[in-house]
């Protein structure tokens, strides 16, 4: 049986007294996109850097294409593509020349011009690295990671800071890599990115995997009732007013424009008319106007908030 692209078991990594990864386990399949989704500081970069062989874990087991990323670094180098956050490109190097140099290290590279075109860098082919924009540098790093047709690519925040057009070009490239059988392990704190690209999402918080699965598995394909109230509600009282077992959660801590509430059934049934009526009746009895009331599909963000009580957005 084929080994997984990446297998991490009980990884622990600290920097002095800062614990970055605390007992993380995950598996990323070959030929699939796996997204590590988590807020800033969750330990995503540290995890990926250990998998890339750039850092050693304090403890735990890491296998990349069945091999130890540090002990077998030489064997893995031609098979694994890495997108470096900080480039590693000489500032005077010109984009096209640099990429052609990268291509020359591989036996069967993707032509540099094809990648420049695909990632919207063709017009910057003659530009020195120091004069590229942040987004261009990022796309060049992605091109360098994939030019050798690796079996597996690590992409750390591949689209952070890109404008929508460049982000979509990067998403297309990632989708094509997957179609070509390349395994991709990417980190992101973009919900949409994870939802669109990933076959499997691993939600990371405080250095641990708190949930994993496809988007449908994580959201349980469930529906929820959502509304906003301008004052804080007694969630326990609302829960006990429901006609069938359910959950009531506040999504934010309430600010000037109130707090968002989510009401779900305890089983996977969609909230029916009686369930919805119970919510609105309870609100009426308590003189609360449920603003923007709607029944909708649960989102990945809801799941993340339920699991961690934290927001995924940049703060
Ligand atoms: N080289 C380092 N030295 C000291 N502390 C570090 C170092 N790298 C990361 N950390 C700390 O380890 C924790 C996890 O950081 P890490 O970069 O792995 O998380 P992340 O999920 O990738 O976050 P981000 O999305 O902000 O990059 C954070 O508290 C961070 O400050």
How would you sum up this structure, described in words?
With 315 residues, this protein is an alpha/beta fold. The chain folds into two domains: 4-218, 3-Layer(aba) Sandwich (Rossmann fold); 222-297. The chain contains eleven helices and 13 strands. It has helices spanning 44-51, 73-76, 95-104, 112-118, 134-146, 164-179, 191-197, 215-219, 235-241, 273-285, 300-308, and strands spanning 6-15, 18-28, 33-37, 59-64, 80-83, 152-156, 183-188, 200-205, 208-213, 223-229, 246-250, 259-265, 291-297. It has a six-stranded mixed sheet, sandwiched between helices. A hairpin with a 2-residue loop joins β1 (6-15) and β2 (18-28). The longest helix has 16 residues, at 164-179. The chain is elongated, with a radius of gyration of 23 Å. The relative contact order is 0.14. The model has no long low-confidence stretch (mean pLDDT 89). Residues 15, 18, 20, 38, 40-46, 189 line the site of adenosine-5'-triphosphate.
Characterize this entry briefly.
With 315 residues, this protein is an alpha/beta fold. The chain is built from eleven helices and 13 strands. The chain has two domains: 4-218, P-loop containing nucleotide triphosphate hydrolases (Rossmann fold, 3-Layer(aba) Sandwich), CATH 3.40.50.300; 222-297.
Q: What is the domain total for the residues? A: 2
What ligand species are in this complex? Answer: adenosine-5'-triphosphate
Query: Low-confidence parts lasting 5 or more residues at pLDDT below 50?
Result: none
CATH homolog superfamily of the largest domain: P-loop containing nucleotide triphosphate hydrolases
CA-based gyration radius: 23 Å
What's the story with the biggest beta sheet?
Answer: 6 strands, mixed
The count of helical stretches stands at: 11
Question: Ends: how far apart?
Answer: 43 Å
The total of beta strands comes to 13
Sequence of secondary-structure elements: EEEHEHEHHHEHEHEEHEHEEHEH
Helix content: 25-40%
Looking at the overall shape, the CATH architecture of the largest domain is 3-Layer(aba) Sandwich
Class by alpha and beta content: alpha/beta
Arithmetic mean of pLDDT = 89
In spatial order, strands of the major sheet run 5-6-7-3-8-9
Indicate the proportion of strand residues. 25-35%
> Would you tell me which CATH topology of the largest domain applies?
Rossmann fold
Q: Using the coordinates above, name the CATH class of the largest domain.
A: Alpha Beta
